[in-house]
Amino acid sequence: MRLAFAVLVLLAATAAPAAAGPAVIAGADPEAYTLDLSYDAGGVGTLTGSERIDFVNRGAAPLARVWLRLWANGPDRCRPRHIEVRVEAPAQAGEERCSALEVRLAAPVAPGATGSLSLSFTVKGRAKNDRFGHAGKIALFGNVIPVLAVEDERGLHLDPYSRQGDAFYALAASWDATLSFPARLRAATTGAAVSDTVAGGRRTLRLTTAQARDFALAIGPMKVRSTKARGVLIRAFVGPRARVVGASLRIARRTVSALGRRLSPYGSTELDVLLLGAGVGGYGGMEYPELVFTDPFPVALSHEIAHQWWYGIVGDDQYLEPWLDESFASYFDHRLQPFWDFCDPRHPFDEVGRARQRIPLNSSMALFDRSPVAFGEVVYAGGACALERLERDIGRTRMTAFLRLLQSRFRFGVMRTTDVLDAIHDAAPRYGVRRWTRMAHLSVR
Known about the structure:
Elements (H helix, E strand, L loop, with lengths): L3 H8 L16 E13 L5 E12 L5 E7 L13 E5 L4 E6 L2 E10 L4 E11 L7 E4 L2 E4 L5 E2 L2 E2 L2 E2 L16 E10 L3 E4 L2 E8 L2 E11 L4 E4 L2 E7 L2 E7 L6 H18 L7 E6 L9 E4 L2 E4 L3 H9 L7 E2 L7 H14 L28 H4 L3 H23 L1 H14 L3 E2 L2 H11 L5 H7 L6
Parallel strand pairs: 1-13, 19-20, 20-22, 23-24
Antiparallel strand pairs: 1-2, 2-7, 3-6, 3-10, 4-7, 5-6, 8-9, 9-17, 11-12, 13-16, 14-17, 15-16, 18-19, 21-22
Helix pairs in contact: 1-6, 2-3, 3-4, 4-6, 6-7, 7-8
């Protein structure tokens, strides 16, 4: 997410988390989200909807409550609140925090058993240019749909919203959505459209995807151009003044082809790319499952699409270990756009200011939110360059094997720092992983 940190850095007190084993889900694991959404374009726009969440209890004890993430309240810290949620009986709303809501289930769900809850919500749009906000006349609804909070062996994750990066940690599930909006507008969304009808001045889309961690959308007066890569329909959504659409489609096609070939198949049949001339929120772009908001600048576009593999397919706790998706996505935008790659693999952290070179690469957003410059230098530049150093050390063939191991082991799952180190060892057994760990400034114990 937010590639401009890297671009700006290149162009112009919290300890790192201890490494741990693979994530073990210890609470509600979503199986399916079902949405019925309606968009009203008046004012700054309003999104209303109903939602059903089906889940499995992966924990060892009966599950009496779950938590929802209400990220729409995060950007303004609940001043004002932008989302109102009504939990349907027999479940009941419990404790409410700014970006989280407890839901008390009607009856405890036994370990291994399935449960469900239903709710309705209203999201009031924001006028600000942001991932949840507006880009000109286009309404952006990023991270506004309630999703289940993750509970794993580390505990329940209710981390705060991050303005500088991402604080998101969600598990993959199937999504089935119906979206209604004024027929004169177009919508870029998560999911592939299986039907598109117009009646009474309203357009209704039926959207579905087999595996995604979230559902996002953008609605406004847009035109659509498309291409294909490796069986994936790539649709570029552009405003009336957008340019370089053809070049952007070529970059998108090349990126999807390259990553699908070197890593693993793309996770769906469709990818929507919303091209915004000035980026979003002052940054280069933002990724969502099967949808990106991005500046057409080649590095930004390649970076945001790379996130479909790093976080979209291979997930991570973006608040606790942001390097696991940002450094990997940056490594690939460097590989795809070498003109903008300033890495010297001999000294991966030379691009990091001397005062920040002691910051561990796997620090959390609790630290980086206090030091945006460090986030750009350490995670985007240093982390990506450390991966380039790894490729130089073990060779491209073993590097590809390492990357594919991560994609296969954690496809629609959750990766952690120790999983990366294990995969390096498995792909290159004679390589000195501990030496690379020190060189990559990873704090592992």
